[in-house]
Amino acid sequence: MSITFRTAPDAPADADLLAVLVAGDAADRATAAHPALDHAVLARLGFEGKAGAVEVLGGEGGRLVAAVGVGSADGVDEPALRRAGGALARAAARQAVVAVDLGDAAAVDARGGAQALAEGIALGAYSFDRYKSDPEPSRITDVVVVAGDDRADAVAEGLTRAGRLADAVRWARDLGNAPGGSLTPEELAEAAVAMAGREGLVVEVLDRDAIVAARLGGLLGVNRGSTQPPRFIELRHVPDGPSRGRVALVGKGVTFDSGGLSIKPADSMVGMQGDMGGAAAVLGAMSVVRTFAPDLEVRAYVPATDNMLGGDATRPGDVLTIRNGTTVEVLNTDAEGRLILADALSLAGEAEPDAVVDLATLTGACMVALGSKIAGLMANDDGWAGQVRDAAERAGERVWRLPLPDDYRALLDSPVADLKNVGPRWGGALTAGLFLREFVPDGVPWAHLDIAGPAWADDADDLTRKGATGFGVRTLVALLEGFEAPAGALGP
Length: 492
What we know:
Elements: E1 4-8, E2 17-22, H1 27-33, H2 39-44, E3 54-58, E4 64-69, H3 78-91, E5 97-101, H4 110-124, E6 142-146, H5 149-177, H6 185-199, E7 202-206, H7 208-213, H8 217-223, E8 231-237, E9 246-251, E10 253-257, H9 266-269, H10 277-286, H11 289-292, E11 297-307, E12 319-321, E13 327-329, H12 337-350, E14 355-360, H13 364-370, E15 375-379, H14 382-395, E16 399-401, E17 419-420, H15 428-437, E18 446-450, E19 456-457, E20 467-468, H16 473-481
Parallel strand pairs: 1-6, 2-4, 2-5, 5-6, 9-11, 9-14, 10-11, 13-17, 14-18, 15-16
Antiparallel strand pairs: 3-4, 7-8, 8-11, 12-13, 15-18, 19-20
């Protein structure tokens, strides 16, 4: 359920809880303005104003009052506000109407600060309870941010942006959390079509026959072991007026990954419905592209299949022919994401975009290198890599650039085909990136985000619950909103 965000000059009388943002080194200022926040009581309870700390106290007339930590007064920024919003959502989950006094965060940019705070509240309140008999979703329905007349318009704009963006992330989480036996490739395509109809996007879905005609050999090869037919989804937003350029988004859409004949251990299959986290991020971003990047032409490409073990499943040693004519020897059927992305990158490149970015839950090797909360960034263009990195920083999603060493390319040489789909064990994230680079036309700036770690959470934190996180939606939106054609772009 979406949360309504609005601004008002004062906290409404019907608010169930009033939250005050408090900096740890300026708590006396906040408590002086709000007598219900007794400084001595907060100190006895151990509240120090750290970012994400929340202490709820009783107030007048039955209304609760919460002190919400935002860190030190001179260090309050958007990430701290986003975290504070998430923590507040957890603490206030049983309240319907929540008022927020910006307090010690009032000096932060009004629009950006309000957006970050509201994003945190909406994402912190998320739960996936579609299959629970007795769900306990957050009861928050209305959030009122107190702002004076001089800041009201900017705060209201930030709240509106946050609402749209948070809905996109929450939808991406819903897609990623849906069981693989329920969200089949066909169901994913239907969800994309419904979204495109609501948002005024052009959509085309290829069924198996059309995929064969399009020569998408990687997608067909991965799908061979499945009883669920594949789909290839293309979405387009074309501006009504002049365009700032053309960007292609590519998302891996493996709706469940058993590993194929290179079967995963049972424990490693848990959570594999989230192997379409890249597709979910791309679809989520496209759902708000007309809001955040109306003057940019954006095309999205999502190959969708599951990876199963049917009687005619692709065998280790089989050779597939990708859309661009490159042949690939498949040595490990659990390295399937790169095969379907190869087709999608080939198609994306044929449209001659100014830049391409793909997102994929691609390698466990990236998680070994960067852990579960940081995505690996690889690119063939420094300027484009910088735009992606900066967008992720603005969005509050962490990425780290990894190299694409040219001498490692030989590790993918095959004795029987143009390429093999895996290299040696060491450097697996890098050889996967080098494999994908083979399907990007020369001269097209391209970036790859390996989101295997942050796309899925094994533990809850202020902004996420266990399961799909929707990682990448906010980065893509920030990237599209601030896009500038890289110097190496082909142009129209």
